[in-house]
Amino acid sequence: MCAVEGMRSTPIILLFSLLTGRFRRAEKILVKAFWRNLFTMTASDQNASAPDRPGILHMTWWEGALYSGILENQVYEPLRCMADAHPEYRWMLFSAGPFLKTWFRDWLLRSSLCARFIPHAHIRNRLDTEVLRRDLGKHGIALFLRETVYAPRTIYLRWPVPLMFPWFHLARLARVIRRGNVKVVHCRSYSAAWVAMLTRRWMRVPFRLVFDMRGLVPEEGVLHGIFSRDSKSYRFWKRIEQALLEAADLIIAPSDTFAEHVETLTSNRNIFTPYTHSPIDVFSETPANTDWYEKFPALRNRPSLAYIGALGPTSFHSLENLVLMYSAFRRVIPNALLLIISRSDPQWLRAQLTQAGLGEEDYVLAATAGAREMAGLLKLARYGALPYRVVTSPEEELIGRTMMASKTGEYLAAGLPLICHPGIGSAARLIREQGVGCVYDIASSPDALRDSLTALDHDYHAVRKRCLDAAHIFDVQLNTERCVQRYKELMCNI
Question: By residue range, what is the domain housing residue 264?
Fold first, then answer.
């Protein structure tokens, strides 16, 4: 289903040209294939017969087309909602990634001998892509895959890769935009927006550019130790950031504090804050699943502090801060339990929790499949944790102050009051304004949490209702409709 476009007859013609000595013709075929079609894979476009409808193209880069929690919540589900509610537009997803690498592994697995030595857990790309294509096709969304060949370890690319990688993709993206009558290109993160901006500039393709920042790539690259603040990579990403902010027709910020920071970087005031998308209806309507009591009996009679998401050396929230927050929580509620819902390595988590002084009776480690199963387990908890990490650098302070994790909406939709580190500026502001939890500085005395928790417990049902009311700002239906309205405004000005 994901055949490389234009390549079905090319190998035969190329082989014939080589065998008959027509080397110049073979050279032309190779050059043409490389620049136009060699690394491009497209889906059958269900809407190809309706070019008169204006098109809206969403772009992701390096993230691939796999099913994952983040992409499902932040890309695929919002796109489905938009396509279902607004069939008057042509909806497309342009996803770039190193697909050939995993497809080659998939081809090797056909051999029983090779299958013994290749871990099957890694051979999911092709199957997931086909499933995703069929799923999006049901909603009238065309999927375009772009082969990048290069497979970076992270999205925080070092110099000179950020300068070099876009040029191989401009002609193909321009072709998709022209054929699809695309009026708006919604780019998730810096790399996708960088390619789109260069395409508009150098290929002379008119469209409105939406820069969905998602985060601060230059600072995050420094935070994760990929490059330093004094490096050429950091300076180049900052130049890209400035160019994108000035060129964007609409800038999407994930939180109010993020938008305030963006205003300090650019004079462009076309900034829109739809918050991170969460399946609020799933988390609010799914009842507590008491079947979990059979697997984890401790959940039945002990109030728990819940954490959902990744935990590890490079995660934004640290396990050390989570343990400190739980320890303070347990001082107020002595029989409290720590509930961790995560797909991180459970053996590593257990080792770290033991090293931190927690026994197996103090915590529960669980992994869930899908939002509904997670919601059923999360509703057995009493509070939700946003522990962040110990802030030791300007990058950590800035990222924490501007971030708004999608788990925030999921906690609130499940009716859980939040216990939040003050370093998470957007969530801390929401808590103070809406009265949906407490802000606790882990560096302060553990007893500092006592008064706040006592007040929350005294009025717990009222606080829980405020949580459910506050969760609506994360609703995927609400935010996607707001996005479409902004698309319409942009298209009116073309």
Answer: 39-278+477-492
